[in-house]
């Protein structure tokens, strides 16, 4: 089974019509417990995974981080990282600064949502009115508690690797995780942005379907 994990502020809608040859299931974000570690959160997320069958995971952005944390808890054959990173060393400078100076903790969550709405189209790279509307609707629906928790996880994430085979798929126009910081890309999607799970999905599906 291939499990699909959305990114921060995203949900099942980014995987609309994402149909591969593999049986698949979209994981649903659950509410974090106050001060919960990313590892403990992933332990609770395991309730949505059938551990009696082979597990593969496709994670977009923050979903890719969660995928790697899940692979530290269970046996995962393959992780498809889409618009994501394998370690904090692949973060751009602004994310490293956030980790050192966690000013986000003092910003009211509605302000974070509002700022995301203002800048989303630029950073995600949406190019059509329909995609921009979808993105803004998804961001507007983001759970405020989850948003703050996930930003804290990203800022403080440490990763020494996991046992799964990682296939890293990245766009050369990604503004959130610029490709110049990504060390071991397996597939580069031309003109791929942070939104490519939606507007370049068929190229990504082809990669997934052709991976043994």
Task: Summarize the structure in words.
The chain has 212 residues and is of the alpha/beta class. Helix 2 (62-70) links the parallel strand 3 (56-60) and strand 4 (78-82). The protein has a 6-stranded parallel sheet with strand order 2-1-3-4-5-6, with helices on both faces. It has helices spanning 38-45, 62-70, 93-100, 109-124, 129-140, 144-156, 196-199, 201-209, and strands at residues 2-5, 24-26, 56-60, 78-82, 165-171, 187-189. Helix 3 crosses helix 6 and helix 4 (109-124) runs antiparallel to helix 5. The radius of gyration is 16 Å and the shape is globular. The protein contains 8 helices and 6 strands; from the N terminus they run ββαβαβααααββαα. The protein has a single domain, classed as 3-Layer(aba) Sandwich (Rossmann fold).
What's the overall geometry?
globular
Q: What is the CATH class?
A: Alpha Beta
- Enumerate the spans where pLDDT stays under 50 for 5 or more consecutive residues: none
Taking the alpha carbons of the first and last residues, their distance comes to: 13 Å
Protein structure class: alpha/beta
The CATH topology: Rossmann fold
Mean pLDDT across the residues is 91
Order of helices and strands: EEHEHEHHHHEEHH
Q: Kindly provide the radius of gyration, computed on alpha-carbon positions and rounded to a whole number of angstroms.
A: 16 Å
Number of domains: 1
The second-level CATH architecture is: 3-Layer(aba) Sandwich
- Name the strands of the widest sheet in spatial order: 2-1-3-4-5-6
Percentage of residues assigned to helices: 25-40%
Strand content: 5-15%
